[in-house]
Known about the structure:
The complex is a heterodimer of chains A (214) and B (415). Chain A has helices at residues 2-9, 20-23, 45-58, 74-79, 96-109, 124-128, 132-142, 209-213, and strands at 33-39, 63-67, 87-91, 114-118, 148-153, 162-176, 183-195, 202-207. Chain A is of the alpha/beta class. In chain A, helix 5 (96-109) runs parallel beside helix 7. The longest helix of chain A has 14 residues, at 45-58. Chain A is globular. Chain A starts with a helix and ends with a helix. Chain B has 415 residues and is of the alpha+beta class. Chain B contains twelve helices and 18 strands. Chain B has helices at residues 12-17, 38-41, 45-59, 71-80, 92-96, 108-117, 122-126, 130-137, 139-148, 178-198, 231-244, 278-292, and strands at residues 2-7, 23-27, 30-34, 63-68, 84-86, 166-175, 202-212, 217-228, 251-261, 297-302, 311-314, 331-332, 335-349, 352-358, 362-376, 384-393, 398-404, 407-414. Chain B is elongated. The relative contact order of chain B is 0.07. Classes of the chains: A alpha/beta (214), B alpha+beta (415). Chains A and B meet through helix 1, helix 3, helix 4, strand 3 and helix 5 of A and helix 12, strand 10, strand 12, strand 13 and strand 15 of B. Strand 8 (202-207) of chain A pairs parallel with strand 12 (331-332) of chain B, so a sheet runs across the interface.
Amino acid sequence: MTAPARWASLSTLSPGxxxxxxxxxxxxxxxxxxxxxxxxxxxxxxAVAQSMIATATRRGxxxxxxxxxxxxDPSSARRAGAELxxxxxxxxxxxxxxxxxxxxxxLHSGGFALxxxxxxxxxxxxxxxVPISYWHRFRLAVxxxxxxxxxxxxxxxxxxxAARQFALRQESLRWRGEAPFQLIDCLETEAVSRKPMGRxxxxxxxxxxxxxxx
Amino acid sequence: xxxxLHGNSPHLVELARExxxxxxxxxxGTVVFSVAGLGRLxxxxxxxxxxxxxxxxxxxxxxxLAICANPSAAALAARHLPGTTIIAAGHESRVLAPIAxxxxxxxxxxxxxxxxxxxxxxxxxxxxPEMGLVERxxxxxxxxxxxxxxxxxxxxxxxxxxxxxxxxxELEDPIGLLEPLLFIISAQLHALAGRxxxxxxxxxxxxxxxxxxxxxxxxxxLDLPFPMRDPKALLKQVxxxxxxxxxxxxxxxxxxxxxxADPRVxxxxxxLPAVPDPEKLHILLERLRAxxxxxxxxxxxxxxxxxxxxxxxxxxxxxxxxxxEEPAARLRLAFRYFRPPLPARVTMQNGRPQQIRxxxxxxxxxxAAGPWRTSGEWWAVTAWNRDEFDIVLAxxxxxxxxxxxxxxxxxxxxx
Lengths: 214, 415
């Protein structure tokens, strides 16, 4: 009885089983396509990506993180539930051309369930110089594969090549404790589906208490 | 049909291999080999014996030769009968009869008993009743009688010939470019990989030796993460190695050597998730390290310390695993590091950061929590001691700011 369930689980990657009904588009990322998550710093882009890394690695799948700005925190990912032994991490030293070439290599290598291309710390000027042909190449490379290419950035970069696009915006930041020794309690974020459009925004809470535990 | 050579020459095995791939060295001076099938090629047993003697004479081998339908009888005849002995099928017991019973490789106590009985030769031993021998010695008695009759074990326990995985080639003209050199090496790798496959083995190490035009020698040893024999994957390994460490002069001779090992065996699973192919993954890692830097790709491993941002890379070896329990449904706030930490200029008011300026992040601090003092590893060069603040800037970005040794740094941001 487990086999059909596993096959079904291979068709989607989601931030968490209980979150599917809340997160709309984020709950069902299409395999074989590019998904883009954009937002300003503090909007929860990295938290969503790390949650997806955790989900994939917990299923025994392998994830690649192409870290454009050398900003990936393995401790954060482990707190989110990721199995770091199932993660390939590539640091690109703020060089967008290295990030794109590494993504191309990994896409063509095959076998990765989730490929996270983190361009959040790449300057908009550098990203604007990336030819759109790169994104078309990535779209064709990931097509007909069981992989998800997840692109994180401040602004939309993949243009028409992304099958799904979400914009995150920080709603509020909750604190706990007495001033001045307060701790971040929770980050509240609103996710808006830009592609497809016309869906109601989804609110998400990112708990922070585990940071203090570690 | 089997032949046996017995003598003191060290080339007995070599001589046997001239006639058959099925060779069993019994001891340092005795080799049994199959001559079945040589009848159509050479002729009858006498012609085969003559051919073996001719080859032996050419190789300088002096040995006794016996040809018989049974390898055990051939070995007995070669060891204990002079010259060349050819035993026709069914006549083994008659030919072996004069050989002393002590020639049999059996328990010395059995031989002592036979001697007490007055049994001196194999002919006398073969004449004893089988049931009596079985009642006294059980299975050993049966074997004893079969050996005396020339009906021993009809199978060879063959020793595999030692296969050398070395190929050398001298070049007519020196080669200075890597691409034509790799073309030469590729041919050698394909030949050696074929040899590995033929023998059911894989390579765990490649040793590349290049003789250079300036008289020097260039040697590279590539330790593979697991035994492999795909020539394309092996060639990629050599290519990455030569790209990273090219020879200092043009090459005049190439030698490729492989250390064989048992190939990797992996049990697949229909419902296990797909993972990258190990050969492809190793090549991918080499390419990523060549692209991004030698220490900038791999699986992260968190070090056993409380020091912030303490991690290292380890080599990847992904295996499809059984799914574990799903992570908690709650999303966790993540952190992003600035590597290296961003130096910042901080304006303080009432002990709280009020304004920060750095290369990437600047602005008014609208909320700050801290300071949180952390320190550790005072006994090591990795010691740290710092005061941390969690700050929110006017653009609602959330950062971690810290001061150490009087200097302010932005550690990263919450996202």
